[in-house]
Amino acid sequence: MTDQVRSSKLKFKGEKVKKKRKRTHDGDDEPRASSSSKRRLDDKDPETWVLPETVNELRGPTFIIHPSDPSPVSVNFISTTNRIAIQVLKSEDDSEPPPLLERTPTDVAQVWVVTRVAGADTINLRTGTGEGKFLSCDKHGVVTADRDARGPQEEWTPVVLPDGMVAFQNIYEKYLSIDEVAGGALQLRGDSEEVGFAERFWVKIQYKYKKEAHEEEKKRKDGLTAPNKIDEASTNHLYQAWGAGRSVVSEDDKKELKRARKEGRLAEALLDRRSKLKSDRFC
């Protein structure tokens, strides 16, 4: 008779015993994520900078870099001059810099804030320093960051490419790019017809916003997100009024108003008729 080998792992009083799960073979060879691995993902620092996998994950503080040669650069905003600057990424000390995809912002000037209107495919890029200016592009491809309010020229459509890089398209269906000007200086342009090396950016976001996007997507798939309720009357009055508060209404509403006015005129005519009869009687 052989003695059963006992586990040498220490157990404490009150500790729950984990039951072993039997592995089932469904024909696919991909290992399933265990609860412990999911827990490790949840335990990740919310401030960790990660790469987005979908357009919906592009939100919150954002770090935009370009793998320029010979040195990678970041898209910065200098609040003292209100200008966009393309600056070479350098280490804080003289040590060898980390790989490009492990870089994180070291200055608030390198951070942009991505916002979007709910349900829209486009995003806005606002500066993370200064008064919060919006990145915009005119029809000539000139890119600036001096607008206090968002409009069509401040709308960008992000495209997540198969390799994980991101391209930004403006309302003129042209792409944001890094352009070399006289003297070897670099600047942003917004007039590229197609996506090439100059139009591809590495974009990093914070993990908590990526997790937030996943949770929203899960709720949407599970049907837990209720559709937005719109008060049509108040919306029309607020957004479709002009002149002396006149509102745009539907055809049915117009008919109701017309009928009400007609009935009102009839009532006034009857009152006038009665008043005239009474006056004639006493004359």
TrEMBL record:
Organism: Panaeolus cyanescens
Cellular component terms (Gene Ontology): catalytic step 2 spliceosome; nucleolus
Subcellular location: Nucleus, Nucleolus
Record family assignment: Belongs to the FRG1 family.
Region named Disordered: 1-48
Gene Ontology MF annotations: actin filament binding
Ranges of Basic residues composition bias in the record: 8-24
Superkingdom of this protein's organism: Eukaryota
PANTHER family hit by this protein: FRG1 PROTEIN (PTHR12928), FSHD REGION GENE 1 (PTHR12928:SF0)
Keywords: Nucleus
Predominant cellular place of this UniProt entry's protein: nucleus
Matches recorded under InterPro entries: Actin-crosslinking (IPR008999), FRG1 (IPR010414)
Protein name: Uncharacterized protein
